[in-house]
Amino acid sequence: MFIAMNRFKVVKGQEAAFEAVWSSRKSRLDEMPGFLAFHLLKGPAKEDHTLYSSHTSWASKADFTAWTTSEQFRESHRNAGQPRPAPLYLGHPEFEGFETILSEINPQTPRHAAA
Predict the structure, then answer these.
(1) 110 membership: H or E segment, kind and range
(2) Is 112 part of any domain?
(3) What SS3 class is residue 63?
């Protein structure tokens, strides 16, 4: 499994606008072979920002790489660089990619929740 994460430092007061951008877009992830799950995570608040992370799980790194070069990726990110009345986040998102070395899943967890 491969996990791809982007960290965003969202400007204080722009959290709702940032979340609305994500919830209103059509990701098209479900059209991609190897896509397992997506999560938008909200982390701790700092003095000038709130930390967020987008988190996708893929069957393999190759599946993730195929996503990044796909028409679906281009379409879902088409408006990412559009100017906004106020900046939503500080700096650029920080990408982190991880290949799974060890996994443990509670056998009592429903199959759809384990991804």
Answers:
(1) none
(2) no
(3) helix
Residue range of the domain that includes 38: 2-99
Q: Return contacts of 96-101, CB within 8 angstroms, 24+ apart.
A: 96/4, 96/5, 96/6, 96/7, 97/2, 97/3, 97/4, 97/5, 97/61, 97/64, 98/2, 98/3, 98/4, 98/5, 99/1, 99/2, 99/61, 100/1, 100/2, 100/3
Which of 80, 73, 75 has its CA nearest to residue 56? 73
Q: Give the model's pLDDT for residue 80.
A: 67
Domain-located, residue 58: yes
pTM, rounded to two decimals = 0.83
The model's pLDDT over 84-95, given as tens digits with 9 standing for 90+, comes to 777 898 999 999
Pair of tokens at residue 88: 């939503």
Does residue 22 lie within any of the structural domains?
yes
Q: How many domains does the structure of the chain reveal?
A: 1
- The span from the CA of 2 to the CA of 89, in Å, is 26
Residue pair 33/81 in contact by the 8 Å Cβ criterion: no
